[in-house]
Design a protein that fits this description.
The chain is an alpha+beta fold. It contains eleven helices and four strands.
């Protein structure tokens, strides 16, 4: 097969169906950009889970005097020194516990003022209204229920709270957004495939005379199909290149510069450039193989070769 002939046929086909080719490029670019973005979002959620789950604490809040009148869990009164010592002793005996720290009412009041000093409620609070607490760092954050079972409802304990539950809600929202992006990506991918099939068929129909002559002189099926398959592959590759460009530019302007989220949200460990660069070859390979295979199966039936 002469490469010059194939290349000339590719150029002819792309020029004849310029509008549909442009639609294919745009749909492939958008669908694969969403695909790459979804992969990066999945990596980001995994990175955040590993970072934050390692820092979560279980908090055992102790009853104070004001809780004795308002909270059923503290009906027996404020926590006593003996109860606090027993709780601390039991915590140190548990194999799932890595570290225990105590927060007094004064420390709790100070931390509250630092975080919510502008709140109208902050001015009306006093240290004796705050709760003493034990902050427990677990060896495995998944073992929260062990602490809850052992201390929830015990005399002197107002409540047992797990910060992991708050993070689970956040990660659940991020995963939902990721699934929504995957759904849109799948829809765009279907649109791209339909456009590729129609573009190839229109191109084949417009050159039916040439393909008929080639069939009569004994040209092989692959020789006839090759220009059409390459047209789809070239259009897909251009779309894949645009998708890679969108991902790189998006990462650059949202995290490093422009919005500069990496400097504004220091508590979030964002995925690095290595995660982005490892996705680009996959996107480019998909952008070539997907249109080429779609064109191949469409032409088998249409050209009957």
């Amino acid at each position: 097969m002469r490469a010059q002939f194939v290349l000339s046929e590719i150029g002819v086909g792309l020029r004849r169906n310029l509008t549909m080719t442009f639609a294919v490029i745009v749909s492939v670019a958008l669908s694969l950009a969403l695909f790459g973005g979804s992969l990066l979002m999945s990596d980001q959620v995994s990175t955040m889970k590993g970072y934050w789950y390692d820092k979560v604490n279980v908090s055992i809040f102790l009853c104070n005097k004001s809780d004795a009148d308002s909270d059923p869990n503290c009906a027996k009164g404020a926590v006593t020194e003996d109860q606090k010592k027993q709780i601390l002793s039991d915590l140190h005996k548990m194999s799932v516990v890595e570290k225990v720290s105590y927060e007094s009412q004064d420390e709790a009041y100070k931390h509250y003022k630092e975080q919510f000093g502008d709140s109208p409620l902050a001015s009306s609070l006093t240290p004796d209204q705050m709760q003493e607490s034990y902050r427990i760092k677990l060896k495995n954050p998944q073992k929260y229920q062990v602490i809850a079972t052992a201390f929830d409802g015990r005399d002197g304990v107002q409540s047992v709270q797990d910060q992991k539950g708050i993070l689970d809600n956040l990660f659940g929202l991020l995963n939902l957004m990721n699934r929504a992006a995957l759904g849109v990506m799948a829809l765009m991918l279907i649109v791209a495939l339909l456009l590729i099939v129609n573009t190839v068929r229109v191109s084949a129909f417009s050159r039916r005379r040439e393909t008929g002559i080639m069939r009569l002189v004994g040209a092989s099926g692959f020789y006839i199909q090759a220009p059409f398959i390459m047209e789809a592959a070239v259009a897909g590759l251009i779309g894949g290149g645009l998708a890679c460009f969108f991902l790189v530019v998006g990462r650059y302007f949202t995290i490093d510069h422009g919005m500069a989220l990496s400097s504004k949200l220091n508590l979030i460990n964002f995925v690095g450039w290595d995660a982005v660069l490892t996705k680009l070859p996959l996107i480019l390979a998909t952008s070539v193989l997907m249109p080429a295979l779609a064109a191949f199966f469409a032409l088998r039936k249409y050209l009957k070769v």
